[in-house]
Every structure is written in C-alpha cells, then in structure tokens.
Structures
1.
Amino acid sequence: MPHETLLKFNYPNTLLHEYTHWAVLLRPQQVTVGSLVLVCRAEIMSMAEVSAEAFAELHTITADLEGTLKHAFAFDKINYLLLMMVDKHVHFHVIPRYATPRTVEGVEFSDRAWPKPPDVTQALELSEQQFAELFQLLRTAWPTEHD
C-alpha cells in the first residue's frame, strides 16, 4: 500500500519510473518545467532511516533522472530539495534550473527565480493537456535498461 506522501503527489498517475526503494513522479505543481519528486517507498520519516540499499540505488536513479531531464530540456543546474515540512515521508523535490526560457510542446517556460533558490510555492500554469504531454515526453524518454 503506498504511503500518504506518494498519494499526495498523485501516485500512481504521475509515476515516471518505480525502482526497488524509490519512485520518481512528475511533480503535479511544476516549479520549473520538468520538476520531479523522488519519494522513498518505505514508511520512514528521516534520512537516517534510509537503508544502505536505498542509498546505493540513488546512484542509478539520479543518473537516470538527470540524463532524462538533460536530454529533454538541457537544464543548466539541478536542485534536490529535502524539505519534509508538510509531507512527512522521505522525499526530494527535484527542480531543474534554467538560465533562459525553454520551449516544450510549443509553450515557453521560464525559471522565474533564476539564479536564486527555487520557490516551490509558485507553480507554472499548465493545462491538463500540457501536463499530460510533459508526462508522456518524460515517461517515454526514461531509461529502462535497469528493469
């Protein structure tokens, strides 16, 4: 049974890829285009509780997600935010950062906070169709050789 943090980010509808210990979701509220949530699947509330196996799996996952986002959007930087203020289970907000606007499916998106820290309380305006197209673009591009 998925825990409440996974469900908060609309799991399984936003699931890009599920690993043994982690799930990568397209963040329902896009801070910048391509924003993800990397959620530990275990019922744990602190980084100290993450197993050695789950930590080791992060090597593969971060390579997969950074490679996918770099190919799709050519991000300039990437931010991993471990906040856990509202959603208590271990998870990272993965925010690709852009010095210049990016065009996705014919729509231009800017990183309004660049070069300052991202503001996770502000979301890009995407229609349901645009979100679905973004999801499909990333899901199709996700590496599968680790399955």
Note: The longest strand covers residues 91-97.
2.
Amino acid sequence: MYSRILVATDGSELSQKAVASAIDLAAACKADLVALQVVPPYPISYFEGGIAIDGAEIQRIEALWADNAKSNVDAIAQTALAKGVKTQAVTSRSDVVSNAVIAAAQKHGCDLIVMASHGRRGLSRLLLGSETQQVLTHATTAVLVVR
C-alpha cells in the first residue's frame, strides 16, 4: 500500500489528530514516517505605524520557533517509534507552507501526505486560503486529509 508517509504538523490539536492517524496508518502498512513541521519567517510589516522590531529580536523569535518545531517532530518520532514505526523528524523554513510540504514529500520519496483540515469556512477560507487546499491542488503525491 504505502511505503513512506509524510505527516505535516503545526502542533495544533487538530494537527495532532492527523499525526495519530498517520502513525496508525504507517504501523498498519509497515511504512516509514516522515514528520514535518514548517517554520515560517517572522512577519515583518512595512506599513506606516507598524511596530519596528530589532533584527536580533526577530532572530531570537525565529530560533525559538525552530526549536519548538524540532521538539514537536522529535516527540512525534518518539511516539511513532513506541508503535514500531521508523520515523524521520524534519523541520523546514519557508513562508509558503504548502510548497515546503510538497517539496519535502518529493525529497523524502513519500507516497502519501497526511495533513489536517483546519476547517475554515466562508469568507475566512476565501480570504486566508488553506495550506491543505494548496497541497491538494498542487501535489502529485496522494493526500489524506484528517478532520
């Protein structure tokens, strides 16, 4: 069925459901797992009246986010290992999460991407878009969306 599954997480509660499903599926298929968390850059506003933040502070915040992401995917790897699933913990930096997910799936030879649907509806979905929707639209790899 599947030999290598990528699970994308952002650490949210809904994302944890996708992680649990991916681990269970990988165990059932005897597949390897790639746990990925994409770390975005700190958003910088160039609008008048925006608060200017020191470059060193931005680097500190981004390093903290990267450390948290690393801890998150390492914890996923430990949980998966306890269920007999060989897991690679990966973090990536990108301002376009969907592109990073697709690139990681290709780089690691994954034949399935598992992601959570964040359930935005109506105007917020239209305005904000959805990383999961972008992956569904642009990935050549199969995608499983967990609600």
Note: The chain has a mean pLDDT of 90.
3.
Amino acid sequence: MRGNRVKEKLQAGQVATVVVGHSQSADTVDFIGPLGFDGFWLEGEHGPITWDRIGDLSRACDLWNMASIVRVHANETGLMGRTLDCGASGIVVPHVCTREHAEYVVHATRFGPVGGRGIYGGRRSYGQDAYFQEADSEILTVVLIEEIRAVENLDAILEVDDIDVFFVAPGDLAQTMGIVGDFSHPELQRVVDKSLSRIVAAGRTAGALGVDANLERYLDMGVRFFLTAYDPWIKQGAEALLSRIAEKVE
C-alpha cells in the first residue's frame, strides 16, 4: 500500500491529471514519471494490457508516485477484482448506464462490509496487517458515462456512494447519439457540458478529456479529473520540426 495520488488530490478538492498514450510499457512510465502527472492510464479495453504486465506497469507507477489506473473491458466482478489483485491502484469501468451498473462496480471493487470483492491481497497486501480493512481507502473507482442511456439515468447513478469519478466520455456517447466520430458536433458538446455540470452540481467529481480547446472551460465548470493523451504532443512536435527544416531548405 503506497497511497493513491489521484484520489488524495481529489479528496483535497484539487485537480488530478492522468496521462495516456499509444505506448503502454514500464519504460514509458519511467519517461513520463518525472513530468509530474498524478496517474498513468493503462488501457485494457482498447489497448494491449494483459494480466502479466499489470504488475510491472503498476510498480513503475509506484516508483514515480503515480496512480496506476486500468480501464477494464467490462463490468464484471472477477475482471475488476483480478485487475486490482495484480497491483492496479485504480479501475475504470466502461458503459455504466444505470444505478444498478454503478452499484455492481462498487460491489466488485470494495471489500466488505461495503462490497464483496474476493478476498485476496496480491502484491499490495504484502507486509500489511490490516490490508482488507484499509485497501478501500486507496482504490480509485471511475465509471464512464458514455451512452445516452447513462445521461438519461445520470441522477440515479450519481446517488451511488464509493465511486470517485464520473467520467463523461464523448466517443461512445456520440455513437449512441447517432453522431459517429464527430467529437465537435454542437449537440454532443451540449450533452457533455450539461452532464459535467450535473455531476458537479450533485457534489460529485466530474472527469473529462482535457485538450487545449476545452481545458480552461472545464476547469471553470468544476471538472477536477482530467485525462490527456500524449500522442498529439509527439505529432505537434514532429510537424513543427519538419516544417522548420522544410522552410530552411526551400
């Protein structure tokens, strides 16, 4: 048990930043670590993360005091429990569309009496006499609001305790609205903004994708959990370098 920097910052009312990218390796975590992000997003729904890699990646995050947050591919008890047993300090659960879905997440990620996570400690329990009594205080639980059905049921979902972040994810949300791939569509932006405002108004923590175009606006709205991708920075840097070279040799 090493604490959870993302959860600690959120509990203190501060902004927490989590980074994700195409490369999901311990070497990448070591490179990102000194930059100052609070957490590293390990992609288990759309990316390459497998069980045998969670331990090493989460250890690398521990070295830099970053939370290791794994997005799993389904709202399943065994899947979430096993991910935590392998050493992850946080879970992101997709397609949480009802109060019952949210309650199921809590049941799977919390030990009793709050939940029913299977009793097994994994590496984070080593040397800890009271692991099962204290582990819940370090686990970060994020649910994705990424279907229009979830937006319609948002008030009921927000009533569920022991969920740390309600993250409004625009990609799949757009698809369920009949807007595939158009993240700038005005109606999608309206639904995302309204959902974030509802989460904040309910006194819960709102999460969003943080990009240049929306960062200040979302901060002003009260969003406190930001996921950002480093891939665009590489692309922008490469384009700038190659443009300068092209201008010089022309």
Note: The mean pLDDT is 96.
4.
Amino acid sequence: MNLEAKYQGIPYELVIDGNIMEENLKKIGKNYVWLKNEVKKFGYLPEEALVVTIDANGEIFSQKKDDKK
C-alpha cells in the first residue's frame, strides 16, 4: 500500500471555548462577520462553539460547547 498523504498544514484555531482568536482571523484575511456566517452553517454562533478551526484547504471544523452544566 503505497499511499501518500497530502500535507494539510497546521489548522488555524479561530475559536477556543467561545473566545474569538482575532489574530488568527487577521492572519487568514477574515473577520468576525465571515466567522459568524460560517459557524451559523453549523446552527450556532461562534461564542457557542467549543472549537472552530480552518485548514489549508479552507475546510472548517466546528464543535459546539456542551450545554450540560
């Protein structure tokens, strides 16, 4: 099995535990409005996310915080 994985690079963290990583948004040339629109596709706001990342291919991963307390 001579499979070669394409290097994806390190994903940028855009939200961590509901905190917006403004510097990382700037690094990728995006802003809060763009982030809000992207996260809304998952059904919640960035502030409700546990984590949001974007990889070198522009793929976004988002996980909502656990509402249980």
Note: The radius of gyration is 14 Å.
